[in-house]
Fold each of these.
Amino acid sequence: MIVGNGDIEEGGAGIIDAADFVIRFNDCRSYGAGGSRTDAVAVCNTGRPAKAMLGSREWRTHPGVVSAGEIWSVRDPEKFAAMRAPLAVSHPELDDFCDDYTDEFSVYCADTGKKHVVIGKAVHESVDASLSAFSPSPYVVPSSGMIVIAEVLNTYAEAEVTLAGFGHVGWEWHPFAAERQLVDSYIAAGRLKRLGGKTLVSSSQGA
């Protein structure tokens, strides 16, 4: 079960908590109304979101983060290092977007006994390629949700994967319209199911 940071339909919490494996995102806004089981937390490990989480006692002590056995860093350090120079030209306001905190998340995981998973750039690039079929407007990066969906489908091809709290809206530089179309194509092909709900607006520099 992949649970976005959005509204969960009534009765969804029990379904989520009954799943074999639950992935939440960043500050685990889905925790509570979206159940409590949390096996992994997928984080933006670059830029302002990463800096805010690592510097927040509230994040470190959040029950979802505490109970998770794994932290998934969704932004490959090599990929984002290569993006820094082009972004300085195209989006100078995102001057800290590629600041990498992967090592700091590794330290946090080592200190707390969690497994640290860094999703490789090949997944990011495969998502870009898949999104291109839907002619997205210019964008900076896919959302964390889309990266995690791709990682799960690639790694656990035989698993039944359900989404909750995904409405595909938020940060202006994520290609949400194309992501919705891509997810719908996976649902039509039987690769995904959707529990329902809609996503809240994602934070500065995306989710």
Amino acid sequence: MHPQSRDHTSPADDQYEDLLGLWSDLESALSVVLARPLQVQEFSAKVQQIDRWLQDLVAHDIDAALYLMFQLATTSTVGYSASHALVCGTLCHILAQELHLPQRERDSLVRAALTMNIAMTALQDVLAEQRERPSTAQQEAIRNHPHESQALLTRLFIKDSLWLDVVGQHHAALPERVPLAQQPAKDRLTRILGTIDRYAAMISPRKSRAGRSATDSVRAIVGQEDALRDEVSYTLVRAVGLCPPGTFVRLDNGDIAVVLRRSEKANHPLVASIIDARGEPRHEPRLHQTAVSKPRVQSALARSAVTVELNHRTMVRLGLYAAQHSQELRSMVTVPGALH
């Protein structure tokens, strides 16, 4: 279902409450396309439609989009392949805007991100649930999947050569010190997708390991060196923050909080404290603008370190009101049982 086809006659608040459902719908639609591509009529048109839905949701509110996307990615391994594809597609869309890519490159990049693993969708879901190391046959399938995915997309009548090229080489090791603008389009897009693919895989949990924190994932990609040396990693941090909306942090007062919105400073987001320093869940979330006052973010946390279940609609609305309607925000924060 296209998000705009829903009835939006209700107030703006209700639209925000429905965003979680819209993201879930989008993930479900993508899951169907990736699971049975040869049975999808007008495959190319369907992928383009999913891409448009994604753009609509990000345009609605990028912070809410990031919050819901990261929560979907880090709270479940069900349908890992579709979830991973959606995270990659969304982040590629955001980075394409940050990097001012031409429209054609942006379209090819995002559609490659959504379909790069299409030849191993079922295997990817199995691997996410598998505790043991991949078998020899599984390792072979993993090695071959870029070219197999490219071949499958060709069978599905994808004519965009840039989309196909990027899928076919999305695991290729390319120079990261060459300015993106000086590289051929397919190499430029492959670098962007490769960085995002690794980042998204690291934050997502699997049965064999918990997902890393977003900050640890960035550090693992860029190493301990200055992120400025890698244009893509630097742009990723600049665009979504070291601690993106939807991820968890420990504050320097001992509390555990969820990030709601970015700020002008990469490591100073708006957060909602959900667990106090004694490890007790807060009955009501406590908001902190870490960019302007204490407490500050001390460290990022992986989802596995947090046991509280969040009401995502409440959190998205809290973030919205914190940014735009402070009077209403204060009344919302005092609502009993906001986490339940």
